[in-house]
Each structure stands twice: as structure tokens, then as C-alpha cells.
């Protein structure tokens, strides 16, 4: 049986313009000895960019799930569901791996910027893939965890095509039986088709919106990000009862992605995402 301190991060909020691309990965994975199945559910609110690269922000509702049931760990990150199907052993080093499935809503609806909004909407991306990584436990206390993970995703409905990859490092630790913290750093590596779908301006789009110049780019390292999560128990402790959560994430778009007119002229390469809410563990 896999023993998990079940905490859900507000990186898992459904932020259609931001969190769906994997930029918010401060999802805690600290472990402790907790016999049996354990589940955390929660609700709250998030504040993030209108689209990736936007300097307009909006509030969004959110919900999340984290569970360890029958030795399978399940967690939501943004609009993505992860299932860790590799049981943890008793040693300090463990293996994490399993499938991912989710949705991408970037620029599929109205955005605040009138020029970007005048461009054709993008299709909702239906994405599947997998993740694999290793984790090291007990570096500073018996229950902390340092994780190295690589996500790989492709769309299956022709929204953007190709493969995206997301290396990530997360350190998570309980500070007491009532307080938990998690910090992460990661990068996003995207395909040529993804880059052109969300950051290019085609000649046809320029003809439709002449104020936006024609712009083309290739895939590559799109961005880096850092995140911080804090959870505080308000009834019981972190293993059961109600907890309050707060999460902050900063993302920096790089190179040709930052130079896109959708970013450099109409938005910002610096992207913030903050969220807070309440969860219940049982």
C-alpha cells in the first residue's frame, strides 16, 4: 500500500488560459505513514492571465482532487488528471510514472484584448500522454520529498499537433502536523506546431487584423516557472479535516515566444498566477 500525505495544491485550479499548459506544478507529494486510502477535495478561486502571454487578468473558480486509492495516486494539475500507477517501496528512492489526460482552452473563447480577440479562436485541445520520474525521501526530515519529473503530452484532436515536454523539480515537506510547504521549478518545451498555433500570426490573420504583424517561429524552450504552495490545517491536522491553501506561480516566456506580437505588443512575457481556497481530507 502506498502511504501518502494527501494534500491538493491550488496549482490544480481550472485556469483555462494558464494552468492548463503545465506551468503550475507545485503539487505536493510529501509522504508519511498513513494506512489505508485517503482523499482530498477542495474548492476556491484563482487569478491568472487571460491567455498565455496576456497582461489582462481574470478571476476563475476552481476545484481539485487528490487521492490515494488502492495504491494508485491520483491528482489534478490544472485541467489535467495524473495517475501514478507505480507503488512506492520502502527505500529512500522511488519511481513515479503513469498516464496524463486533460484539456487545453487557451484562446478558445473571448479575451479582453480586442486585437487578439479578433483572431480566429483555437480548438479545444484534448491531450493525453504520460509522466515518469524519480523521488528522494527523507532529506531534511522523515516525511519530505524531492521529486524529478518529466511530462510528455500530445493532442489527439488536431488542435496543435506534435509533442510537448515539461521537466520539473519539486521539493515538498510538512513543517509541522498542521503546516505544509512545497516549492517547484520547471520549464516547458513545445513543438513547432504548438508554437505556431498559440504564438504565431499567419499572413491570413494579419490580413484579418492588420495591426498585428506577420510572425512565425519554431518550437523549443517556451518558458520557465517557479511556484510555491502553503497549506494550513484549521481542523484536525494535515492528515484529516479542513485545510486552507494558497499558491503563487511566476512564469517567464522566453526567446521567440516572448517576442511574439501577441506577447511583446499586446501582453507581457511575465505571467503571474495566484490562488487560494479550502480543502477537506478524509
Describe the structure.
It is a single chain. This protein has 282 residues and is mainly β. Helix content is 10%, strand content 48%. The chain has one domain: Porin. The chain has a twelve-stranded antiparallel beta barrel. The two termini are 17 Å apart.
Topology, please?
Blueprint lengths: L37 E12 L7 E13 L2 E6 L2 E5 L8 E12 L9 H4 L7 E13 L7 E11 L7 E12 L4 E12 L1 H8 L3 H6 L11 E14 L7 E13 L1 H5 L1 H4 L5 E12 L1
Report the span from N to C terminus: 17 Å
How many individual β-strands? Answer: 12
Question: How is the largest sheet built, in terms of strand order?
Answer: 1-2-3-4-5-6-7-8-9-10-11-12
Count of separate structural domains? 1
Based on CA atoms alone, the radius of gyration comes out at 19 Å
**Which band does the percent of strand residues land in?**
over 45%
Class based on secondary structure composition and strand pairing: mainly beta
Task: Describe what is shown at a glance.
With 282 residues, the chain is mainly beta. It has a single domain (10-281), classed as monomeric porin ompg (Porin), CATH 2.40.160.40. The chain is 10% helix and 48% strand.
Question: What are the main properties of this structure?
Answer:
282 residues; mainly beta; Porin; twelve-stranded antiparallel β-barrel; 5 helices; 10% helix; elongated; disordered N terminus
